Amino acid sequence: MNPPSSVQRRDDTLRSGAESSSVSFVVNGARHDVELDNRTTLLDALRERLKLTGTKKGCDHGQCGACTVSVNGERINACLTLAVMHDGDDILTIEGRAAADQLDPMQQAFIDHDAFQCGYCTPGQICSASAVLEEMQAGFPSHVTNDLTAPIEITDAEIRERMSGNLCRCGAYSNILKAITQVAKERA
C-alpha cells in the first residue's frame, strides 16, 4: 500500500479542520456575534450577514478602495481581510459615521462640494478621507511629506497621495479634494 500523497494529506487536513467560527465584533457601536465560514471576508460579513450595504464591493482585490472601513481606528480594505481575523475588534462603517439627525462633517462636506457623481465609491472615499486627516494629525508621514520633524501640512499633494488608494470612475477628484480640505480647515 502506497503512503498518501501530499495532495491527499492536505485534503484530509482541510476536511478535519473547522470550517466555520464564532466571531464577535463591535460594528458602529453595536456588538454582533455571528457564525461565519472561515473564508468569509470582512466585506462580505458586513454586507451579507449584518446587512450593512453602504460599504461597497468594487474590485474585490483591494485596488479601488470602495470597501474602506475603519478597524480599531485604522482604515483597511474590507475585501482583503477575513472576518475571523477581527474577532473582538471595533469596526466603523459609513453607516456609523452620522449621528441620528446629524451628518458627519466629512459627509456634509462631500455634499457641499458635490464630491460624488454616481456615489458608488463615496462611502469608501469618506471613510478614507476621515482617516487621512486623522493620520496627518497624528504625524504619520506620506511619500510626499517634506519635513518629517514638523507638523504635517495639509496640502493638495498630501491629500492626493494619501487618497491614492481610492478610485472614482466618475472623476470627482477635484471636488473630493475640496471636501477634505474644508473639513481639515474646520478642524484646524
Describe this structure in words.
Strands 2-1-5-3-4 form a five-stranded mixed sheet, with helices on both faces. Strand 1 and strand 2 form a beta hairpin. It is an alpha+beta fold. Helix 3 crosses helix 6. The protein has two domains: 78 residues, Ubiquitin-like (UB roll) (Roll); 83 residues, DNA polymerase, domain 1 (Orthogonal Bundle), CATH 1.10.150. The relative contact order is 0.14. Helices cover 35% and strands 14% of the residues. The chain has six helices and five strands.
Q: Give the rounded overall mean pLDDT.
A: 92
Roughly how much helix do the residues carry, as a percent range? 25-40%
CATH fold title of the largest domain: DNA polymerase, domain 1
Shape: globular
| CATH architecture descriptor name of the largest domain | Orthogonal Bundle
Judged by helices, strands and strand pairing, the structural class is: alpha+beta
Q: Give the biggest beta sheet.
A: 5 strands, mixed
How are the strands ordered across the major sheet? 2-1-5-3-4
Query: How many E-type strands?
Result: 5
Return the CATH class of the largest domain. Answer: Mainly Alpha
Order of helices and strands: HEEHEEEHHHH
Poorly predicted sequence stretches spanning 5 or more consecutive residues: none
Total separate domains = 2
C-alpha-based Rg, rounded: 20 Å
The count of helical stretches stands at 6
Any idea what the CATH superfamily of the largest domain is called? [2Fe-2S]-binding domain
Q: N-to-C terminal Cα separation, in Å?
A: 75 Å
Estimate what percentage of residues fall within beta strands.
5-15%
